[in-house]
Amino acid sequence: MNHAIKLAAATLSAALIVPAAVALAPGWMPGTAIAMGQSDLKGGTVKLGEVDPAAIPTAGPHAAGSICNAIPIGPTVTGLTYSIERGSAGTVTVAGRSAVPFSATGTAHVTLPAGGGLRGGQCADYAIEDLVGDGTGENLVLAATPSFNLAVGSTSIEVNGLPVYRFDALSDLARNGIAELYHAGALALLFNDDPTERITRIDGSVSFPGASSATLTGLHLLEADGDPVPNTSVSISDGEFAITGFAALDPEDWYQVVLVLSAPLAGEPMRLQLQGTFAP
Question: What is the pLDDT of residues 131-164, one digit of tens each?
């Protein structure tokens, strides 16, 4: 199967818009939604922007923007978890569908309709209602984390995304990625950017910088189309792991690394370090 597609060749040109002071965003008028602009998902959690509590409108949607899947390849984004710090919110509406309430902990998980998720390059509008500051006068911070439904063996699981991992034989092979997780699993896209050498082995480690006591319980290596990579052998010990035996990852190709955890993290961070071994 030929899945030699370079991420850089198809990266969207739209820039992430995070106004430094949303209250002064161009076009803002009292009583209208604060414009959050466009935010690009690139694997892990993306900051949508900050809101000055003194600028929250008195009626209508309080904040509105668009969110785009800026990874043109890989699985479709099937869910979005919106989160808020230094305040609270009532509901979030995505693509004009039913409003989803925020929990007492400041999160709202939106399930995108079957067949209607965000494929690479696609965007969806969102609107957030009933923003309230925490009384400190500090800006509210809004963020979103994508999730994916993946088939692992005979089971379908929902996992959160991690930043993309890109390797080549001449650079430092170790790469760290950290993201907020709301589900009991994570997805890392691993690219071989080396022009001549193949990746023959993958080593890594998982840690939890926050308060989570979750552990790594399973790991799967998938083709670009989601099929398991044949002949893969996985060993896991105290958060460290090795993936061997698979067909070497050719230059400009990519695999999906799926990590299964013992429990959801409820927004706590997970750190994943990966390292590739190269051979001609």
Answer: 999 999 999 999 999 999 998 878 889 999 998 8
> In this structure, which amino acid lies at residue 70?
A
Does some domain include residue 2?
A: no
Cβ within 8 Å of residue 79, ≥6 positions away: 109, 110, 111, 112, 146, 147, 148, 149, 158
CA atoms within 13 A on the CB side of 3: 19
Distance CA 35, CA 79 (A): 22
Q: How many whole angstroms separate alpha carbon 164 and alpha carbon 30?
A: 40
One DSSP character per residue, 62-116 reads: SEEEEEEE--SSSSPB-EEEEEEESEE-SEEEETT---EEPPTTSEEEEEPPTT-
- What is the pLDDT, as a whole number, of residue 19? 31
Provide the token pair at 176: 């760290």
Tell me, yes or no, whether 126 and 235 share the same domain.
Answer: no
Is 226 in contact with 157 (CB distance < 8 Å)?
Answer: no
Q: Kindly state whether residues 157 and 221 are assigned to the same domain.
A: yes
Give the span between the Cα atoms of 49 and 92, in whole angstroms: 15
User: What range does the domain containing 193 cover?
Assistant: 153-279
pTM (two decimals): 0.82
The number of distinct structural domains making up the chain is 2
The letter for the amino acid at 238 is D
Answer yes or no: is 10 within a domain: no
Q: Is 9 inside any structural domain?
A: no
Mark which of 118, 148, 178 sits at the end of a domain: 148
Contact 68, 14 (CB under 8 A): yes
